[in-house]
Design brief:
With 127 residues, the protein is α+β, with helices and mostly antiparallel strands. The chain has two helices and five strands; from the N terminus they run αβββαββ. Strands 1-2-3-5-4 form a five-stranded mixed barrel.
């Protein structure tokens, strides 16, 4: 079965490797969209981050939280998500205040090497 790969050039193997890496990344990302976790912490800061330029400009908010109730400090993104039917990230941004404690429902994984953060899909202030 693998004997076909022995005759491939380094460039062809590199192309196959890139396709495999992209495929695995897409699969992991899709699975992560359905994994929901709770988090509790105090919002330290909120910053609008934009990447790209022109027609490929993509912006979202990054929220820096100080974990409470045993949770570690973490950075989350607040962006719309088709997979989670979340289209109200601007409403979330309008409802939060720095220094307030919140319980979040987040989805996805934190993957530092890819600069991926978990996405907030629900926010509730802690009384």
């Amino acid at each position: 079965m693998f004997s076909k790969f022995r005759n491939l050039s380094a460039i062809e193997m590199g192309i196959i490797g890139v396709f495999l890496l992209v495929g695995v990344t897409l699969i992991v990302g899709a699975i992560g969209a359905w994994v929901h976790n709770d988090y509790q912490g105090v919002l330290n800061s909120s910053e609008r981050v934009c990447r790209g330029s022109g027609d490929s400009l993509e912006c979202h908010y990054e929220w820096r939280f100080r974990g409470t109730a045993g949770y570690a400090d973490e950075v989350f993104v607040n962006r719309d998500s088709v997979l989670n039917a979340k289209f109200n990230s601007a409403d979330f941004q309008n409802r939060i205040d720095t220094g307030q404690e919140y319980t979040l429902v987040v989805t996805g994984w934190r993957i530092p090497i890819l600069s991926m953060f978990r996405n907030v899909i629900a926010v509730r202030a802690v009384e």
